[in-house]
Amino acid sequence: MTKLRIQLARGEVLFREGEDPGTAFLIESGEIEVRTRQRGRDVLLSVLGPGELVGEMAVIDESPRTATARALDDCVLFPIDRHQIAERLAATDPIIRSLLEGQLKRYRGALAALQGKQSAPDALSPSERLGISRIRLEAQLREALAEGQLELSFQPLLDVPLGRIAGYEALVRWEHPERGPISAAEFVALAEETSLIVPVGEYVIDTACEAIARLMAAGADPAPFVAVNVSARQMAHPGLIERIVARVDAAGLPRGSLKLEITESGVLDYGLAAGLIELCHRHGIRVALDDFGTGYSNLCHLHRLSFDTIKVDQSFSHDMLDSPRAMAIVESAVHLGRAVGAEIVVEGIETREQLRALRRLGCRYAQGYLVGRPQSLAQLLASPWDPASVV
Ligand code: C2E
Ligand code: MG
Ligand code: MG
C-alpha cells in the first residue's frame, strides 16, 4: 500500500532517473532538487518547495523518470497515486489531454536531445489522435461557417386536432467536404464547448428569419412559426434576445413567428433562463423546453420557468405502444402541460399508431418522420405537405 505521508532526511533520494513511476508527490515542507545528467555533466533542472508537485510528469504519461529527485533538507511529502491522476485525465476534455500529452512528448524529446540521446519519434496515442481530430473538426467548422457550408433543414410540426402544419423546427446541417454529413448532435456539442456556438447560432437565427419571410411570401395562412434551438452557452452570451428581436423586426416578421427551444441541461441557470424567458415574452417570442424527460430532466424546470411549450423527448414516443409505462408518462406530460398552461409537442412520431395514440390523449402537436423528415426550404416550398400522409 502507498504510504499516506513520506518523510525524507536531507540528501535522501525520492526517485531516480529511469525508474518506473507509480506516484507523484505534493511537497508539504522542505525542498527537493531535481537533477539529470547531460553529456556526463550533472545539471540542476529545478528546486521545488512547499505546495509544489514533483514527479507528476512521469505519472501523467506513464514513462520512466527523466530525472533524479533528492531532498535538500528534511522534507514531508504526500504521495499522489497514479490512479488519482489517471482517472481525472480520462475524464478530461480530449483536446486538453492531447495538448498535455503532446507537450510532454516534446519536453522529453528536448531533454533527450540535450542529454545527447536519440529519441525515437513517438506515434500518436489514441487519446492524442482523438484530441487532434476534434481540433481539426473545430477548425473545419470555423471554415464551414465562413464559407457558407452550413445549412438549415426544416422539420414540420403537426397541429394534431386541426390536421395541418403549425410550424417547423430549424435543424442545422453540415455537409463536410470529406466526411459527408456530420450529425448535428456531434458538431453542435463541439461548437458548444467553445464560443463557436455563438456565430453558428447567429447564422441559424438569420437563416430561420429568411425562411419565415419566404414561407410567408409563399402564402401560408396562417403563417407557420419556425423554432430554433438555443443552447445554454448561447443563452449566457449577453444581448442574445435583443439581437433576435432586432433581426425579426428588420425582416418585418411578426414577433410570434420565431420560437426558441431550450434543451434541458444540467447547466441550465434558472436566474438566467427566467430572465431570458421573460424578455422573450415581453417581445412576443415563445419558448419551448426541448427533450423533456431526458438527461437532467427536472420538474423544477417547469415549476420555476414559464415555458410556453414542452417537447416530450422521442424516447417516450418510441416505446409508448409497447410499454404501458412510457404511455403513462406521455399521458401525464399532456396533463402536466395542460395544468401549467403549456402546449405539448411529442417528438419522434414515426407511425400512424403512435399518432392515433396522441390524438386519443388530446396532445396538441406531433413531430417526427411520419409528419415529415427535415427538409431544405427549397424542398419544402416545392412540395406542399399532404395531410393524407398521416391518416
Ligand atoms: P432536437 O432539437 O431534439 O431535434 C430533434 C432531433 O430529432 C433532430 O435531430 C431530428 O432530425 C430528429 N428527429 C426528428 N424526428 C425524428 C423521428 O421521428 N425519429 C428519429 N429517430 N429522429 C427524429 P438532429 O437534426 O440530428 O439534431 C440533434 C440535436 O442537435 C437537436 O435535437 C438539437 O438539440 C441540436 N441542434 C440541431 N440544430 C441545432 C441548432 O441550430 N442549434 C443548436 N444549439 N442545437 C441544434
Ligand atoms: Mg429542438
Ligand atoms: Mg428535441
Q: Which molecules other than protein and nucleic acid are bound?
A: ligand C2E, magnesium ion
Low-pLDDT ranges: none
Overall shape = elongated
Structural class: alpha/beta
N/C terminus separation:
69 Å
Percent range for β-strand residues: 15-25%
Rg, nearest Å: 29 Å
- The whole-number mean of residue pLDDT values reads 90
How many strands appear in the DSSP assignment?
17
Biggest sheet strand line-up: 9-10-12-13-14-15-16-17
The DSSP helix count reads: 14
Helix content: 40-55%
Largest sheet, if any? 8 strands, mixed, barrel
Summarize the structure.
The chain contains 14 helices and 17 strands. The chain is α/β, with parallel strands linked by helices and 391 residues long.
Describe this structure as you would to a colleague.
This protein is of the alpha/beta class and 391 residues long. It contains 14 helices and 17 strands. The protein has helices spanning 56-61, 82-91, 94-114, 126-146, 184-193, 197-217, 232-235, 240-250, 270-282, 300-304, 314-319, 324-340, 352-361, 377-382, and strands at residues 6-8, 13-15, 23-29, 32-38, 41-48, 53-54, 68-71, 75-81, 150-159, 164-176, 180-182, 225-230, 258-263, 286-292, 309-312, 343-346, 365-367. The strands form 3 sheets. An 8-stranded mixed β-barrel has the order 9-10-12-13-14-15-16-17, surrounded by 4 helices. A 4-stranded antiparallel beta sheet has the order 1-8-3-6. A 4-stranded antiparallel beta sheet has the order 2-7-4-5, with no helix packed on it. Helix 3 (94-114) packs across helix 4. The chain starts with 5 loop residues before the first strand and ends in a 9-residue tail after the last helix. The mean pLDDT is 90. Bound molecules: ligand C2E and magnesium ion (MG) (2 copies). One magnesium ion is lined by residues 169, 229, 261, 290. One magnesium ion binds next to loops.
